[in-house]
Specification:
heterodimer; A: 650 residues; alpha/beta; GMP Synthetase, Chain A, domain 3; 5-stranded parallel β-sheet; 5-stranded mixed β-sheet; 22 helices; 27 strands; B: alpha/beta; Rossmann fold; 11 helices
């Protein structure tokens, strides 16, 4: 076997040679899917690269790429890399001021953007970014009368490129030849929860090696199809779409517009799919709404066969033995009548592998997809590690974990519980931030993820929380509040939960019920109630919540590391936690410390023997007025389980 | 002239009058809807008609596209004077319109609805279309391409296959505009295109109206109650009150006209 190409531009030429007539890109334009083969793409990239060179783009320059997933934007990235430059994709929905920061930070001189919206933003920040000298746009709509000297249409760029290529026919090949695998291939800005975003520099070598591992891991080939709909600025899109297509030679399908993704998904029928949990959740919600609107025959069929799928579907997917013949037959029938048509409507008939990651996925959601035969798996990673730290191998999937470390990746758990990673996909550096780089990567070469986790008995990594939020109970065992809260929030009846236990002898919790779900539940039982506070104090509701908490406890008991974190006592708060009252952040994350202080009386009551506690709280109404709510809150004891009992019950 | 006025930013040229209304009067029995109204619409112009309820605005549009036949006066479109014209003739000559109450086929998809806008341009006969062969097929593909361009222009790709009845109001309005544009009109009549819309929808619609005018060069007659929209979009404004024209001029002139202020705010007797 000849030596494998080691930079993206060389991979492009390699694929253009090997798979010249295979589709590389599709885009739906004016209602029709347009296809470009690898050979056509290589030709387009050559022209774009020559055009950029004609405008003065040089080796090492950085090119901002901003817009929805468009073939020409991907080609612009390829063109920049071919010239030895570095593409810097930006989030297309970022406001102008955020873009200004990245444009300055990365010293960007050239930008290729999608349309008028992005042009307007760049023109707005132009005075703050003196280095930015050229903005190329793909879609000329609305830009006819813009006279700014910095603007160039992509068509003009291509024309300049053709002319340049005629004068310098060997230029492109020479430039591709000059690239080294250790060059930076892309700079991806991490959103950064605090402070300014940091630019993560990834080399060709890191990205390509990681992509090779991934392609081998799930056996991707050139007949695979992927719909690229996630932001180009996100490492996932660069790795799963861009890098892997270069290795496997499969086709990237660009949706017609962000609003048509569901239709496009169905038309393309990708074989490989990635989405954060909320995407899967939205799809499921849509399905459920439509099923409830369907006629009773369809509804009965759906629910009947979904029960079968829930019982045996996951076992069948994982190829387990011991599933009764009758159930297999029923499942087969269900596939014909329900699961197959459903997957077809969702555009998931051809999916071989689907991934989710980024945050915890609910058990119902996860089981739904797996039970109808979609091989949904989880993964763990971040921009700094080219994602790819841990992934579920097909056939060894556990809801609670993110899978074992990938080949070539070393994962170590620090004494603090923090997950440390060393891998070939580790970033080169934070761009122009040696201090931050030193802080993140220790002298041994391990990257500090900031996440806390541990390995389970099967060698799977389990991520429980951000390391800084993880504490210890009084007896020294691990206390991961967010993990517990998430576990509770997966119950549809529980909207928010706040767990306490840092330095205490046991875990107790505040709970917010989900007004819509429990309200509906109460109506079906003819339980009268006046409002949130009233509903939250009804004994029947408290019982319902107690059952949820006990179910969570039973799960926790099975996990030796977390068995001590079972929730002993809880109360249902008399008001909903609100961002207006400073109890939640604007992104609706609970502010545990603030809540603990504000409701100190209640926390004390939880950790005493009291069975009820009077609380009076100020709250702010939507119109800005303030008032008080008060209630006598019942404190409920929840059953806890020993490990053995839990196993029996489960 | 300030730099934000449409003429500077778009650079479009307003040409000769394309539509001339001359002394038009219209009555329904004893009810007088229009009384000796005259004005003109120039090429590439956005012309607004405003006025209080019952001023005769919609009647004026109906006269222009031949739904009503005025008892007196003439309408000249592209130099051809006429009094009585039928709506389909007006459409053939290049006048398209949208309606105050949406007039779409609710059970048909967005795509099919817009295709009906191409109806007058279809040359193949019923039999050919039924067989869907040769010329009829080629023709349909051409029309579909035109329709897709309109869909792209108005950014409604995501509802292409959705029955119109299931769409929210703002989108239905956009579909109606799409159907009118599919006819590739030279003169577009918009009857309250933004009525009942929220601010965002209004902004979208305003943008589309401006782009139609700028990129397709279509002349537009617009009835609208939202004064900020009228003042931002239009080149010239006609003001009707009780069927009479009480003012005519640029938005600024109309805004400061005593008669207009009285008509809108009432006047002490």
């Amino acid at each position: 076997m000849t030596e494998q190409p080691d930079t993206f531009p060389r991979l492009l030429m390699y694929q253009a040679n090997l798979r010249s007539a295979r589709p590389a890109f599709r885009e739906k334009d004016l209602g029709i899917w347009q296809t470009w083969t690898w050979a056509q793409v290589a030709a387009e990239v050559r022209i774009l690269a020559c055009g950029l060179a004609a405008l003065g783009f040089e080796r090492g320059d950085r090119l901002a790429v901003i817009g929805d997933n468009r073939p020409r934007l991907y080609w612009a990235m390829m063109a920049a890399q071919a010239l030895g430059g570095v593409p810097v994709p930006l989030y297309q929905d970022a406001v102008a001021a955020e873009m200004a920061f990245v444009l300055q930070d990365a010293d960007i001189g050239f930008a290729v953007v999608e349309d008028q919206e992005q042009v307007d933003k760049l023109l707005e920040v132009l005075p703050q970014c003196p280095r930015l000298k050229r903005i190329c746009f793909d879609d000329p709509r609305g830009l006819r009368h813009y006279g700014q000297a910095e603007l160039t249409g992509l068509e003009d760029l291509q024309a300049a490129g053709r002319e340049f290529a005629q004068g310098n026919p060997d230029f492109f090949a020479d430039e591709v030849g000059k690239g080294r695998p250790s060059d930076v291939a892309v700079i991806l800005y991490t959103s950064g929860t605090t402070g300014h975003p940091k630019g993560v520099s990834q080399t060709h070598a890191a990205m390509i090696q990681t992509a090779r591992v991934l392609v081998a891991f799930d056996g991707f080939a050139d007949k695979d199809d992927i719909l690229c709909y996630l932001p180009m600025a996100w490492v996932g899109d660069f790795l799963y779409s861009y890098a892997q297509m270069h290795i496997a030679g499969f086709c990237l399908n660009c949706p017609e517009s962000p609003d048509t993704v569901m239709t496009d998904l169905r038309e393309i029928g990708p074989t490989y799919y990635f989405g954060p949990p909320r995407v899967y959740e939205n799809i499921l919600t849509q399905v459920m709404i439509r099923i409830e609107d369907a006629g009773w025959i369809k509804r009965r069929m759906f629910h009947g066969f979904m029960a079968v799928a829930k019982r045996v579907g996951m076992g069948i997917l994982e190829g387990k033995a011991g599933i009764p013949f009758k159930d297999r037959l029923l499942y087969r029938l269900g596939e014909i009548l329900v699961y197959g048509p459903l997957k077809n409507v969702l555009g998931m008939s051809r999916i071989r592998v689907a991934y989710t990651g980024g945050e915890a996925i609910g058990p119902d959601l996860f089981d739904f997809y797996r039970s109808i035969g979609i091989n949904l798996k989880q993964l763990y990673g971040m921009t700094e590690t080219c994602v790819t730290v841990c992934m579920h191998p097909s056939g060894d999937v556990k809801l609670e974990t993110v899978g074992p470390p990938m080949p070539g990746v070393e994962v170590r758990i620090a004494d603090s519980g923090e997950v440390l990673v060393r891998s070939p996909g580790l970033m080169k550096e934070y761009y122009k931030r040696p201090d931050a780089t030193r802080e993140a990567i220790d002298p041994e070469g391990f990257f500090h993820t900031g996440d806390a986790g541990y390995f389970d008995t099967g060698g799977h990594l389990k991520i429980i929380d951000r390391a800084k939020d993880v504490g210890k109970l009084a007896d020294g065992t691990l206390f991961a509040p967010k993990y517990l809260e998430n576990k509770l929030k997966f119950f549809p009846y529980i909207k928010e939960a706040v767990c306490f236990g840092q330095g205490r002898d046991k875990v107790c919790a505040f709970i917010n019920i989900d007004m819509a779900a429990i309200g509906n539940w109460a109506e079906r039982r003819n339980l009268p109630y006046t409002g949130y506070a009233d509903l939250a104090s009804q004994p029947a509701v408290l019982d319902l919540v107690r059952e949820c908490v006990e179910k969570a406890n039973r799960d926790l008991a099975q996990d030796s590391t977390l068995a001590n974190s079972q929730i002993r006592r809880f109360l249902v708060l008399h008001k909903e936690l609100e961002a207006d009252d400073g109890e939640l952040t604007r992104t609706r994350k609970v502010r545990r410390g603030h809540i603990g202080d504000k409701y100190a009386v209640l926390v004390d009551a939880l950790y005493s023997d009291k069975t009820s506690c009077f609380a009076e709280t100020q709250m702010r109404f939507e119109d800005g007025r303030t008032g008080t709510v008060s209630a006598d809150l019942q404190i409920v004891e929840a059953k806890t389980f020993g490990a053995a009992a839990a196993r029996k019950a489960a | 002239m300030n730099s934000l006025s449409p003429d500077v930013t778009t650079g479009r040229k307003i040409g000769e009058p394309i539509l001339e209304i001359d002394e038009v009067s219209l009555a329904f029995g004893g009810v007088v809807a229009l009384q000796g109204v005259s004005f003109d619409v120039r090429e590439h112009e956005i012309r607004a008609i405003i006025g209080p309820n019952g001023a005769g605005k919609s009647s004026m549009l109906n006269v222009i596209n031949g739904v009503y036949h005025p008892q007196q006066g003439t309408v000249a479109f592209k130099g051809r004077k006429r009094r009585n014209v039928d709506p389909h003739e007006a459409a053939q000559q290049g006048i398209a319109r949208t309606f105050q109450n949406i007039a779409l086929f609710r059970g048909m998809t967005v795509l099919d609805n817009i295709m009906t806008g191409r109806n007058l341009k279809m040359k193949s006969n019923f039999l050919q279309q039924a067989v869907y062969w040769g010329a009829a097929r080629r023709e349909e593909l051409e029309h579909r391409a035109k329709v897709e361009a309109v869909i792209d222009f108005l950014e409604i790709q995501h509802i292409r296959k959705t029955p119109v009845g299931r769409l929210p109001y703002g989108l239905q309005k956009r579909v109606e505009l799409a159907r009118a544009l599919a006819a590739e009109p030279e003169l577009l009549l918009l009857d309250e295109p933004m009525a009942g819309m929220n601010l965002e929808e209004k902004q979208d619609m305003s943008r589309f109206v401006l782009e139609v005018n700028d990129q397709m060069g279509t002349s537009i007659v617009l009835i609208e109650h939202d004064m900020s929209v009228v003042m931002d979009l239009s080149d010239r404004v006609v003001v009707l009150d009780y069927g009479r024209k009480i003012a005519d001029g640029t938005p600024d002139e109309v805004r400061n006209n005593r008669g207009v202020i009285d008509a809108y705010l009432g006047v002490a007797h």
